[in-house]
Amino acid sequence: MAAPSSVSVVIPAFNEAGAIAGVVTRLVAEGWHEVLVIDDGSTDGTGETAAAAGARVIRHPYNKGNGAAVKSGVRAATGEFILIVDADGQHQPADAARLIAPLGEYDLVVGARDAATQATAGRRLGNGLLNALASYLTGMRVPDLTSGFRGARRSCLLECLPLLPNGFSTPTTTTLTFIKAGYSVLFLPIRAAARTGTSKIRFARDGATFLLILLKVITLYSPLLIFAPVAGAAFVLGAAYGAWTAAAHGRIPNGAVVLLLFSALVFLVGLVSEQITTLRSGAALPGSGDRDKVGGAR
Question: How does DSSP assign 36-85, residue by residue?
């Protein structure tokens, strides 16, 4: 089990001067190994405020994105484990202690927010759809795919860094990557408080990005989970269309033939992709190598 003295707290922050001092002050009082604030090109004095509150501050010369800030924090951290906390004041110190307690037995522990604590009905609906799709694609129930409040083994996060985007989908990517790489993942229920200030994520703008990241990571590990349903749907549609037309008009239409050929082509491409993924997984994908060599001795 992880102790606070082995945990580096990483706080990505962009223009969060109104909340960052309170967040840092509460965390410093908990006795963590270190508290790192990644000032991602803020223009409101976020970095200076965090430093005055007791954090070690790493500054980006310009705004690179939440994911880039997390990556900088993971590289700079010196603890065995990392706790990622939002800078907006939503996350509670008591929940932080609960999240890090299972680390060691688990490689990633995610704070799964109660749906009632998420900002709007539209965001709850969108997150619910993403959670359902992620649960299907990973074969594991995912109650909160996009929560940024999480603790993880640093060595495992380092393996994932090349896959992480610089924008607002780092939680999505790390959750999917850890699950599909075979690491132990735990979701712990939490209640998020109202954030200070306004959210920088817009679901209409960023929702499609989250979906594309989800599909990208899954096709990296299990392409047939994407290709097989598409091939199956095309086959069923083509067969049904062909059978109906043959019964009604005594012929098989070209459209049905095209759909059946498309189904076979998509399935074969998915099968080849699955084989390529399997062949590459021994050396190229995070989590596929000897964990004592790549991820550190347990």
Answer: EEEEES-SSSHHHHHHHTT-EEEEESS---HHHHHHHHHHH--SSEEEE-
